[in-house]
Amino acid sequence: MSQLTLLLLQGGFLVLLWFFVFGVVYSLRADLFGVKVRKLPEPSASASPAAAAPTSSPDAVTTQVKRPAAPVPAPAGGLATTDAVSRIVITSGPKAGLELPLGTEPLTIGRSSESGLVIRDDYTSSHHARLVLWGEQWMLQDLDSTNGTSHDGVRVAAPVQVKVGAPIKVGATTFELRK
């Protein structure tokens, strides 16, 4: 084998080794510090939440969603509103049967101890999903989880309005909002 071939093989091996090291560091950083959380836009007081389609900004980190000052009429069609929902009931998974009362604050669901609803299973991300009160309606938002979040059998890509009694699946746990 020539000196040039040996030098090229050594250089290639070194580059491959550094890619591996950076991959491990990136993975550890994501596990330790989590991922960025997208912020829901504030609903305007003049438009109802049903008329304003929720969008997300990938660069913003959320702290709290403000609610409109004017009262918003309750939507029809079985959607979860503050009047219609008072608790979350876990129907299957490691914590089946657990009931949590809902307030007006956003509820983060995930494996992290900082989450409002902590689910410890291999299919749940540290910060997996979030329930947010938007105006008078509860919205479900996936927080870029690895395995995704589904509502009523459909994977959540953007924030969706939650229906009362519709199953919400996070990892191996299924729960629903009830009166």
Please explain how this structure is put together.
The model is unreliable at 47-77 (pLDDT under 50). The longest helix has 31 residues, at 3-33. The strands form two sheets. Strands 2-1-11-10-7-8 form a six-stranded antiparallel beta sheet, with no helix packed on it. A five-stranded mixed beta sheet has the order 4-3-5-6-9, with no helix packed on it. The protein starts with a helix and ends with a strand. The chain has a domain at 87-178: Tumour Suppressor Smad4. With 179 residues, it is α+β, with helices and mostly antiparallel strands. It has one helix spanning 3-33, and strands spanning 87-92, 99-101, 107-110, 117-118, 129-134, 137-142, 149-151, 154-155, 160-161, 168-170, 173-178. It comes from Microbacterium testaceum (Aureobacterium testaceum). This is FHA domain-containing protein. Residues 107-156 form the FHA domain. InterPro entries: FHA_dom, SMAD_FHA_dom_sf, YscD_cytoplasmic_dom.
